[in-house]
Amino acid sequence: MAEKFRFRLEVVRRVRKQAQDAQRRVVADAVQSIKILESRIGRLTSDLHRTMDRTRDARRPHQLDLPSLRRHQVYRGCIHGWLLQSANELAERQAALDGARSKLAEITKSYKAIEKLRERKWASHVHAFGRAEQVGYDEMAAVRYVRARGACRAGGGGS
C-alpha cells in the first residue's frame, strides 16, 4: 500500500489561510463601518434639507420669525460641519479599506502560491500511487501468465 500523502508545508499553508481569513474580516469590518458612515451622511443630508425647508418657511414675508430663522441657520451650520467631518472620515475609511484590500490581495496571492504547490505535490503523489498500483497489477498478471503457462505445459505434456 502506498504511503499516506503528507504536505511538508501544511503548517505554513494553514497559517496563510488563517491570515487570509483574518484579513477578510478586517475588510468586511471596514466595509461595514463605511456603510454606517454613509448612512449617517444620508441622515445628515436629509436633516439639512429639512432645515433648509424650515428656514425657507421662516423667511416668508407675512410671518417673519427671526429667532426661529437664526436657530435654523445655526443648526444648518452645525449640520454642514458634521457633514464635512463625516466626509473627511469617509475619505480616511475609504483609504484604509483600499489598503486592507491590497493587503488581502497580497495575502491571497501568497496563499494561492502555496496551495498550488500543494496541488502539484498531491498530483505527484497520486501519479506515484498509480504507478505503484500498475506495477502491482503487472506483477499479478505476470504471475498468472506464468502459472497458466506452467499449467498448460504440465497438462499438455502428460497426454
Provide the descriptors you would attach to this structure in a database record.
159 residues, 2 helices, 89% helix
Précis, in short:
The chain is mainly α. It is built from two helices and no strands. The two termini are 43 Å apart.
Can you describe what's shown?
The chain is 89% helix and 0% strand. The protein is mainly α and 159 residues long. It has a domain at 10-116. The mean pLDDT is 88.
Q: Characterize the biggest β-sheet.
A: none
Number of strands: 0
Q: Please work out how many helical segments DSSP would assign.
A: 2
Instruction: Classify the helix fraction into a percent range.
Output: over 70%
The run of helices and strands is HH
Gyration radius over CA: 38 Å
Mean pLDDT: 88
Structural class: mainly alpha
For the record, give the distance between the C-alpha atoms at the N and C termini, rounded to a whole number: 43 Å
Low-confidence stretches: none
Envelope shape? rod-shaped
Strand content: under 5%
